Amino acid sequence: MKKIYIVLLSRIFSTLLMHQALQSQTINLTGKVINSQGAAISGASVSVADLGINETTDGNGNFTINYSSGTSLNEINANGLRSYFDGHALYIASNNEPVTVTIHDVLGRQYATILSSEILSGEFKIYPAAYIQTSSPNFYLISVEVGEQTYTHKFLNKAIAGAGKGLFFLRETETSDVPANVKSVQASFVMKVSHDDYRTKTYSLDCNDCPYMEITLEDKLPAAPDNLVATSPNSSSVELSWNDNSDNETGFR
Length: 253
Fold this sequence. Notes:
- The longest helix has 9 residues, at 71-79.
- The protein starts with 24 loop residues before the first strand and ends in a 10-residue tail after the last strand.
- The strands form four sheets. Strands 5, 6, 7, 8, 9 and 10 form a six-stranded antiparallel β-sheet that branches. It has a four-stranded antiparallel β-sheet with strand order 3-2-11-12, with no helix packed on it.
- A hairpin with a 4-residue loop joins β6 (90-105) and β7 (110-126).
- It has one helix and 15 strands; from the N terminus they run ββββαβββββββββββ.
- It is mainly β.
- Helix content is 4%, strand content 49%.
- The chain has one helix spanning 71-79; strands at 25-35, 45-48, 53-56, 62-69, 83-85, 90-105, 110-126, 139-146, 149-156, 168-171, 189-195, 198-205, 209-217, 226-234, 237-243.
């Protein structure tokens, strides 16, 4: 039987290894959304697409995000898996073995390579969505080879914005000897704050346990007028007419 290997373009950044807590990854965040005059904005959307979070501010502009996920590492540890995909993050457990991670489309064509026979020791995490363009097809297969074991995961591309890119070190195994060339970047989820009457803002959630943050949304810029027409009813005057496409301007000049 002919094997089809799936590979993702690997970019391993030259920054310090990021150690994350062994227990579940959590985000505990409270905040308030206000306008430029300091008034609370109710009904604003506060979302973290990577995690499927979508909250709405209350009448006082307040919101709370509580998120916890530890099932992926539990699956690896409890079931002896070397690779596990939870729909967002790909988890890998390796003991000084070559690891290859690639992505293919449904026709078996290689789309990208994340790792190619990289010797790893420890438990790691990767976000495949960071290697997929939003205009690309929606369904992929992730192929993972850890030593002699091969895994295939189905991957539905949900056009997730802001997923961390790189190889993230989670913890050492008992015989772990993480090579110096294995680097990572800090995984930062992107939070989007939006409201129909205001301009959308995005924030990197570098702090996953923030008791309070205040977010100011600016008024939307007026939509530009169009169909400007100039007529001259007589030799001493010009009349202008146009389509007014906005409702938040104070006048035209």
